[in-house]
Amino acid sequence: MKHIPLAAALLVSALPFQSAAEPAAPDPLAFVDPMIGTGPEGHTFPGATAPFGMVQLSPDTDATCRVRDCYDHAAGYSYPDPTIQGFSHTHFSGAGHSDLGDILVMPQAGEVRLDPGDPAKPGSGYRQRFDHATEKASPGYYAVTLADSGIRAELTAGTRIGIHRYSFPAGKEAHLLLDLRASLYDYPGKILWSGLHLRPDGTLTGFRETRGWAPGRKLFFAMRFSAPVANHAFLDRDENIPYKGFQAPGRGSDALAEKLGKALEARIDFGTLTAPLEVRVALSGVDEAGAIANLDAAEKEAGGASFDAVRARTEAAWREALGRLRIDAPAPMRTNLYTALYHALLAPSVWSDVDGRYRGPDDQVHVARDFTVRSTFSLWDTFRAEHPLLTLVQPEQVTTDIVKSLVASREHSPHGILPVWQFAGRETWTMIGYHAVPVIADAYLKGVGDFDADAALAAMVASADYAPYGGLGDYMKLGYVPIDREPEAASKTVEYAYDDWTIARMAEKMGRKDVADRFYKRAGYWRNSFDAKSGWLRARLSDGSFRTPFDPTAINYGSDYTEGNAWQYSWFVPQDQKALFDLLGGDAKTIAKLDAMFDYDVSKLDYSHAEDIAGLIGQYIHGNEPSHHVAYLYAYAGAPWRTQERLKQIVDSQYKPTPDGLSGNDDLGQMSSWLLFTGLGFYPVAPGSNQYVIGRPFVDHAVLTLPNGKRFTVETAGLSDANRYVGKVELNGKPLARSWISDAEIRAGGTLRFTMQAEPDKAWGSAASARPYSMSSAR
């Protein structure tokens, strides 16, 4: 991977953790490789975006895939592909489902082609071949040479704007094709309606409404060019209208050019140019006026909206965001960790316009007066580590915005509940649980964010009591979700119970004993789906019996479990691991079962039918979230040295600083957040407990700078491949006997020091008093 040279004027003269007496810190942008995870499993994109930006401007190597073929192209870009179809403005980072790819632009030199063509037949359409050797990517910047035309394409982005810069071969006529038909996860009938409108000042605006993963999604854009438009044509390909060479306004016609339809394209001609063409594109979920206002705002910012000015501002924003965590580690690990932090800061993305307007889940326009609305909530994935990470590295306005956005979404929801899996303000109803609840509770319990706690708790309770959702009516009556009435019932039972525990924790702190008592009771409902005789979490029928036949290795969509089997889900009791271990027969039997999970011979099992089952270590599946806390559970059984062993095994096998460096899709930053926490030496097994379970570090030194100016430092002595065990842990110079650290201890600042060694210390952390929180022993 090649990294772009960075202007000396933008070097890190004021990273937040650096004092005048300290040497200049390395530029964190130099250690981020956006190509990590762009291989088939990671589903990341390499293009340009600002931290949490509304615009993700990136190349699409296949924007015409259908159904299962789209899985590898969920982010639009897949590293093995040989061609680029165009550059679109919206993408998910690491999602397990595909959508977006809005407003696809492709530059062309000389002859203009109107269809993408066949990637196996060069020259059959407007898609073009490219060589990875010509690509450059870093935070806020992407570049590639389109081999068939010789056009050099560069991309950068601000919060609500994307900028293209195209350098055309000398003497060749320059053209742009805007294809409103193209969309990721495409299928017939996805484009419900679209429009194009060329205004007298040369601004091109438009919109489209799509029926995809999120039904009825509306997106508007405004586009301006650095060179005058010589000619243009708006085409509706459903009408099969050929190019007619319409004159642009101001060149012989006072009429505005407009077109509506379901298969629109715009051909924009610029003649022969003597300088690179810059294309400025702003988005809005509200209307074209909102997109124009977002574009105007970017142009009025200091430095304007030129390519170089926007790139400089975005690189400065990335430098500040990444600079909150200074990491010193062996080179491959440093790249992995800084890139993980970069991926963790891509979402939840900005959704409201500069004037505060946004489109809500009711498809109506609302106004946020005191916060920036965020969307793209992959909550089943991100409640585990992504959101807890943001409470440390973005604890102020971003966390406030997230909670206020979740609560506002509930206020405008036709169902009166919090988001499940939302993007562009639209609900997809993907995955299970009501995991906006732990995101809110975790922030509140940590004292992070400025939001109305009463309104937040009301939204949490409303979501947990919404009987029509996912078998919740039966869950509240029976104490479990019955499999003969609701699919994936075993998983839903335990995930609801965990979410209920976080409601209880928040209510208790607020002095709402009535709410706390009710939800603490529900937090114990996981027992109702646990078969103590067999030692497995199992689905039960409405008559109370466990469903048979039963195979703990079976993975099937719509079965007893969600994207997993009994091996993974039998460990999901993060709020009360001690109680679970007691049911399993105590520490020794628990440790033996954990070992059996990691050591299981899966060579004779076929999981190819399940897309998200990747990164297997026995029955531990790191490429999917239900396994993510499992390696840390040894600490709850008094054997943290086994956690240390397993973490080394997982990190070495599941992460690399290469395009195929993620073993599973990143899921909007969850895979990356797991690595970042693990690299620092601790992990939030139970968000809402205000504890992090200590594992082992993979850094030599790291410094987290908090908004209050305090710093939390991780130091490691003796880090090496041979020294995989922790010999000693010290907090602020004093020995730490317990296998967890509190959130308050991190926010107070100080130093967590690890001393590594080749042999395990089996006594450290083994005492019952040294183990992390469990509900049954804490209350």
TrEMBL record:
Magnesium recorded as keyword: no
Signal peptide as annotated in the record: 1-21
Coiled-coil ranges per UniProt: none
Gene3D superfamilies the record matches: 2.70.98.10, alpha-1,2-mannosidase, alpha-1,2-mannosidases domains, GH92 mannosidase domain
Record keywords, A-Z: Signal
SUPFAM superfamilies in alphabetical order: Six-hairpin glycosidases
GO cellular component terms, semicolon-separated: cytosol
GO terms, molecular function: carbohydrate binding; peptide-N4-(N-acetyl-beta-glucosaminyl)asparagine amidase activity
Domain Glycosyl hydrolase family 92 N-terminal: 31-284
Domain Glycosyl hydrolase family: 298-757
Statement: the UniProt record of this protein carries the keyword Signal: yes
GO BP of this protein: carbohydrate metabolic process; glycoprotein catabolic process
InterPro entries: 6-hairpin_glycosidase_sf (IPR008928), GH-type_carb-bd (IPR014718), GH92_a_mannosidase_put (IPR005887), GH92_N (IPR041371), Glyco_hydro_92 (IPR012939), PNGase (IPR050883)
NCBIfam families hit by this protein: aman2_put
Descriptive protein name: Alpha-1,2-mannosidase, putative
Species whose genome carries this gene: Sphingopyxis indica
